[in-house]
From TrEMBL:
Record's keyword annotation contains Transmembrane helix: yes
Keywords, comma-separated and alphabetical: Membrane, Transmembrane, Transmembrane helix
Name assigned to this protein: DUF4333 domain-containing protein
Superkingdom of this protein's organism: Bacteria
Annotated transmembrane regions: 79-99
Length: 217
């Protein structure tokens, strides 16, 4: 690339390019050399041509996308977290396997608790023996007439131990031979498995018996 016309510096110059920077010609020669150097540099800069399309390529780098590169410093902590999470899950699974509950066996619900009560006959003559005349009736319905023909579930006698499940307090009023009345009726089961309602006047129960839920028969 040319840098302008060559300057020999006059007759008896210092060399091929005519530039003597050794300072041997005095102060005027040094200033001329510096001015000449600046002129040549400026001329060379003006003659440099920009390649065609360079600025367009700089402004529009194109649509090609450069794949994102995740620095190693970011990938490593993420991998460490994954490994730690997997280890924790494995430990938790092992602990659960060791302490896991055994198979649950559902036990059938047993019969409701009962209270033992004893049959009492107010007639002294019927407190011994088990004659039909001394039998006391268990009713099917505590709200029906006690003496009705169809309201009989079975017979009990004085001194029989019965299992009382519950009691109703609003049953039919019954009066015994001694004139004692009561509207309490006990849902009982005899030793022979007979189930029915015993009037409250036919026992001298002193133990608490829970009230029957609605609809119990």
């Amino acid at each position: 690339m040319g840098v302008g016309p060559r300057y020999d510096g006059g007759a008896g110059g210092a060399g091929g390019d005519g530039l003597d920077l050794g300072g041997g010609q005095g102060d005027g020669a040094g200033d001329d050399a510096e001015a000449l150097l600046r002129a040549r540099l400026r001329l060379a800069d003006e003659q440099i041509e920009t390649p065609p399309g360079l600025w367009d390529r700089i402004r529009d780098p194109g649509t090609e996308q450069v794949p994102a590169v995740v620095p190693l410093s970011q990938r490593r902590p993420r991998m460490v977290m994954l490994v730690v999470a997997a280890a924790v899950a494995a430990v938790a699974l092992g602990v659960w396997w060791l302490v896991r509950p055994g198979p649950v066996t559902l036990q059938p619900a047993g019969p409701p608790p009962t209270v033992k009560i004893t049959v009492h006959n107010s007639e002294r003559a019927c407190r011994t023996g088990r004659s039909l005349e001394c039998a006391l009736r268990l009713a099917n319905d505590p709200h029906a007439k006690y003496a009705e023909r169809g309201n009989s579930a079975g017979r009990v006698w004085h001194g029989d131990a019965l299992a009382a499940r519950c009691v109703v307090t609003d049953g039919r009023m019954v009066r015994d031979e001694a004139g004692i009345t009561s509207t309490r009726w006990y849902l009982v089961t005899s030793g022979q498995g007979v189930r029915g309602w015993l009037p409250g006047v036919r026992t001298r129960n002193t133990r608490e018996v829970p009230e029957c839920p609605a609809g119990v028969k």
